[in-house]
Each structure stands twice: as structure tokens, then as C-alpha cells.
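Private note to self, pasted from the team thread so I don't lose it. C-alpha cells:
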């Protein structure tokens, strides 16, 4: 199982990550599509080749073709939006907020899966990418759709653990090279 391979690559000094990885994936209360879409989108967003290589096959096996594509789409569109909206928010000139974005984001309106699933994946990727404006936006959409805070927090836990695992494993691989 790829999850076991990934866990075994985590060094002992980061054993909490090993335990958390098993928990957020192996004991997740999220439905399979929400979980594996979050895993795939976050594995992509983590920028860790090892995390993506280990988790993508299992995500693909647990997702429909439409959900698999939508999770990748969430990672892609948030890679753009998180930079754009985070920058707009961080600039001291508030007038940037009044300018038209002029960026295509059609997939957000028609992701090919349940809107709440796509929003959850987008929120998780936004957590990795550190965009407060996108986090707020996706959280509000999810809450208005009746998604519980606990569900939102589960997606953020997946994001945080996968990001930490990727950083740790990639650093160890570079340090031992």
C-alpha cells in the first residue's frame, strides 16, 4: 500500500507526522470522494514528488474519472488564484481590489462534481498555499451549503499533514543525497 510506503519514509524525529498521516487518511470521517479528492489536490499542491507519486494511484482508484479530473482542476486553479488573491490582499493599495481580475476560472462554476466537494478541495489547497482571502471565500460557500465546520477542519487537517510530510521527506532526501 502506498500509504505504508509514505509512512515508512518519514524519519523517526517526525513520527507524529507518521501517526497523523495514518489518521487523516486511514481514519477520516470524510466520505471517500471528499477524502481522496482532498488527498489528490493537496498532494499536487504540496509540490512533493514523493507524496504525489505515492498517493496519486490510490486516489485515482478511489475516485471516479470526473472526480479525479476535478481534484486536479482544483489544485490547478487554486495555484493561480491563491497567488493572485493573496497578492491582491497583501498589497497596501486597496485599489487593486477594485480592478477586474480578468482571469478565467470557469471550472469553479462547473467542476464536473458536486460543488461542495470542489469547494472543499479548493479550500484545502488554499490552506497549503496560504491564501486567507480564498480560505474565507471557500469556507463561506461551504458553510452556506450546510457543510459542518468539522468537515472543513478535516480537509484542512489533510492539507496540513500532507504538506508537512512532503516538506519533511523531501528535505530528508536532499540531506541524504
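Design output:
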Amino acid at each position: 500500500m502506498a500509504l505504508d510506503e509514505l509512512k515508512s519514509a518519514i524519519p523517526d524525529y517526525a513520527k507524529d507526522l507518521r501517526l497523523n498521516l495514518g489518521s487523516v487518511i486511514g481514519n477520516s470521517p470524510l466520505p471517500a470522494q471528499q477524502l481522496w479528492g482532498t488527498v489528490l489536490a493537496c498532494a499536487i499542491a504540496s509540490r512533493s514528488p514523493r507524496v504525489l507519486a505515492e498517493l496519486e494511484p490510490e486516489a485515482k482508484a478511489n475516485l471516479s474519472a470526473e472526480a479525479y479530473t476535478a481534484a486536479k482542476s482544483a489544485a490547478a486553479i487554486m495555484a493561480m488564484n491563491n497567488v493572485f488573491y493573496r497578492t491582491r490582499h497583501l498589497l497596501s493599495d486597496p485599489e487593486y481590489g477594485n480592478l477586474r481580475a480578468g482571469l478565467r476560472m470557469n471550472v469553479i462554476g462547473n467542476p464536473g462534481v458536486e460543488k461542495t466537494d470542489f469547494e472543499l478541495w479548493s479550500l484545502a489547497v488554499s490552506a497549503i498555499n496560504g491564501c486567507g482571502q480564498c480560505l474565507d471565500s471557500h469556507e463561506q460557500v461551504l458553510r452556506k451549503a450546510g457543510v459542518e465546520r468539522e468537515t472543513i477542519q478535516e480537509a484542512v487537517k489533510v492539507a496540513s499533514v500532507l504538506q508537512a510530510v512532503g516538506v519533511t521527506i523531501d528535505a530528508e532526501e536532499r540531506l541524504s543525497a
